Amino acid sequence: MYIIMRLLRNFAILLMLIPGYVAFASSQEYVPDFKGIFSRLTANRNVYNAYNDSIRMPMWHTEWVDLFSRRSEVIGAMYEENGRLLNSVYSYFERDQVPDSAYDKLYDALAGDPNKKFGDPFIFEQMCDILIPHYERTEPMDSVRLSFLYYFDGRAQYEISILGDMEARKRSFASHSRAVELGRKLSSHYQYPRLISLMSLLTTNWIRDGYMSVDDGLEVRRELQKCISDEEILMSIPVAHLDVAREKVDSYGYNLIRNGYLFDNSLMEKQFADSRIDDMIDRYMAAGSLGVKDFCVYQLVLVNRGQQNMESALNRSLDYYKKHSVIPDRINVAQLAKMYSPLLDLIYFNDLSNIPIDEKRRNVEFFCDQIVALFAARQDWQLDNLYIGVLMKLIKYDRLLRYMTSEEKLRFLDEMMVCTHVATYAHSSHVAALAEVMMDGIVKYRPELLPKRLDIKNWRGFIRKAAMYHDLGKNGIISVVANAYRPLTDHEQMIIKTHPVRGLEFLALDSTLAVFRDITLGHHRTYDGKSGYPMDFDNTASPVKVLIDLITICDCLEAATDPLGRNYAHKKDFDTLIGEFAAAKGVGYNPDLVDMIIGNKDIYERMKYIVNVGWQDTYYDIYEQFLLRNNE
């Protein structure tokens, strides 16, 4: 009897140590330690960032492969831990009855240090979706907490919108506007969220995207100016934010001209713009010496005033850039934006200058080298999305691309892909190695499967390019693709599924890439065409269906056997996976291709070698070809 009582007592103690059972074992309502959870998530993300950034450091073959292996082990454990932490929050608020105090504690965990924890907009989105409805229905409505939450949501949604989600951009604007609206009704002591939302709205991007007019922007500027002139409000605002707010107010007119009128004079009336340009000239004259960005803008102002031609602006700006712009070994996303901006001006000057085409081409070669160097120096910090907006602009920027040959465009694309996310490029390279072996098998054993409509002399070279470009769209959503430190949210899963369609934006870089359209679109559709994504693409009707099927097999094979970075699934061995392909042939996979692999030992063993051993050389070759060269 005594032994039974001891066992029951130990079991009760064990229950008390399990969060889900604390409410049962204690008279006091259990509430998760939200602050501790978010502190741990932040610490894990910092470790994740440090591992990703270290991939770019110079090292030998064995060191680099060992680093990738250690990274995989650490991040795999981190992924599991972070999943448990987040699920403890989600499951708690999915209960039928949650005390008000729990919402308050979650709010306190988020609001206590938002800038430190704001590296993960998708988690903030999840938390805002829990908290905002609660405080909206609270009687009386908690306007103070709501004003903060709408600011948090606006900021998170804007980061998400950079990945191409325009509904998130719309929600960002609405949330910032709601924070401002709520703040207007609060006392002077609670104006902080109103002020930082006004700061967020005081950018020319909202005008460019059609959410505000120039007059709306100036009204936001006046309201922000009024806030930072109110002595009572100043008492509740951190000094650092006040300095940023003052700079925003002072530079808004300049930014309207810099980011708008000088490049698109339809944004405002000439008379209004001229007065701002006069102010800008006075500012430059008073500065004495100018940074590279301001110097380039000043040259454009002089062109606009008829005081010099575009060739003079180009020559002066290019000389100034070469003398004063030095790319450090490592730069953060804000530095990248600052250093990238004058390159855009130089590209603009170069395109509109009346100089020989060969000189324009030489300049473009220099600009591309500088852009690649900037991206190569970028610190790989998870969920800094600004650089993605830069990348998406570049691949469509005709003022740059029109002076490049097809070969130069593709080389530039390859370099930018590696600098954006080496693991995605490595995945594509690994898929390409497998695809080459499969194509050898088709040519040797099943040549009748090859598409008759394509006039291809080198099928091996063709399928390699198709494999290298099948995941191009991931470069436009890389902060989600690279988010291996925790399970993805539903919103992130939705964004991931856009990458085949987004790949078309990259394929538009050069007309020679159009032939890979169906393969890029269809590589996540099943063989029978009944599932996968995007659903509005009919892979079964494609004239290159067998090539889509080939890339699908190689893509799945690489992902499932990846020894380094697929934290959402356990690595499988080659033999087991081929058995699974055989079981699913005719539905998920092309039966002719699966049978070709299984039925020909030479093809089977070559693919198995690439999966088991060859990946090491594939990864290090990329490192030597791109990353090591950029570090020299």
Secondary-structure blueprint:
Blueprint: H1 2-17, H2 22-25, H3 34-54, H4 61-93, H5 100-111, H6 114-117, H7 121-137, H8 143-161, H9 166-184, H10 192-201, H11 205-208, H12 214-227, H13 231-234, H14 239-261, H15 270-287, H16 292-304, H17 310-324, H18 333-352, H19 357-376, H20 386-394, H21 398-401, H22 406-420, H23 422-445, H24 459-469, H25 478-481, H26 490-496, H27 499-507, H28 517-522, H29 545-561, H30 574-583, H31 591-599, H32 601-631
Helix pairs in contact: 3-4, 3-5, 5-7, 7-8, 8-9, 8-10, 9-10, 10-12, 12-14, 14-15, 15-16, 16-17, 16-18, 17-18, 18-19, 19-22, 22-23, 23-24, 23-29, 23-32, 29-30
Query: What amount of the residues lies in strands?
Result: under 5%
Which range best describes the helical content: under 10%, 10-25%, 25-40%, 40-55%, 55-70% or over 70%?
55-70%
Structural class: mainly alpha
What is the rounded Rg? 28 Å
Q: Biggest sheet, in brief?
A: none
Report the average pLDDT across residues: 85
User: Cα distance, first to last residue?
Assistant: 75 Å
Q: Please give the number of β-strands.
A: 0
Estimate the global geometry from the Cα principal axes.
globular
Low-confidence stretches: 1-27
Question: What distinguishing features does this structure have?
Answer:
mainly alpha; 632 residues; 70% helix; single chain
How does this structure look, described?
- The chain is mainly alpha-helical.
- Helix content is 70%, strand content 0%.
- The protein has 32 helices and no strands.
- It has helices at residues 2-17, 22-25, 34-54, 61-93, 100-111, 114-117, 121-137, 143-161, 166-184, 192-201, 205-208, 214-227, 231-234, 239-261, 270-287, 292-304, 310-324, 333-352, 357-376, 386-394, 398-401, 406-420, 422-445, 459-469, 478-481, 490-496, 499-507, 517-522, 545-561, 574-583, 591-599, 601-631.
- The longest helix has 33 residues, at 61-93.
- It is globular and about 80 Å long.
- The termini are far apart.
